[in-house]
Amino acid sequence: MKNNKITLACVGLVGLAVSGIAGAVDARARFMAANCSYCHGPDGKSHGAIPSLAGLEPGYFVKQMKAFQDGSRPATVMKKHANGYTDAEFEAMAKYFAAIK
Ligand code: HEC
Q: What is the spatial distance between Cα 39 and Cα 61, in angstroms, rounded to a whole number?
């Protein structure tokens, strides 16, 4: 658990460093989004099997996060991530990712 926190903090810092383009957006949303970059790619642009988050329609994004949270969308890891955030935080992240081109 302790290590897990440290890893997340490091991922967060790297994410912040690479997401300098997003100067205009809510700093808190950017900080939360940095926690996703390890798997979903810097700025939500994935180059692997995990889906990209950049440019997702905000309504879709929020719906998926809630579905992960309540278990109606099956997930390997996303249920754990979704559980850590409130609805307002989903909205903020949805806006952040939707704005990335
Ligand atoms: C440990 C790797 C990992 C991290 C960290 C992670 N995700 Fe995911 N994400 C996945 C995987 C894998 C999937 C596919 C569903 C599943 O198996 O859980 C996914 C799916 C998603 C989807 C659905 C995308 C679509 O096109 O339907 C959304 C939205 C999403 N993640 C958002 C996030 C957000 C927001 C964060 C940060 C708070 C985050 N993820 C952090 C691995 C991760």
A: 16
- Cα(3) to ligand 1 centroid in Å equals 21
Of the candidates 62, 51, 49, 66, the residue with the CA atom closest to the CA atom of residue 96: 62
b vs e for 63-84, b when ≥16 Cβ sit within 10 Å of the residue's Cβ? Answer: ebbebbbeeeeeeeebeebbee
Which residues, judged by CB distance below 6 Å to any ligand atom, belong to the binding site of ligand 1? Answer: 32, 35-36, 38-40, 50-51, 53, 61, 64-65, 75-78, 81, 93
Protein residue with least CA distance to atom 26, ligand 1: 51
Residue 42 to residue 40: CA distance in whole angstroms: 7
Instruction: Please determine, for residue 84, whether its predicted confidence score (pLDDT) is greater than 60.
Output: yes
pLDDT tens string 4-58: 555 555 555 555 554 444 444 578 999 999 999 999 999 999 999 999 999 999 9
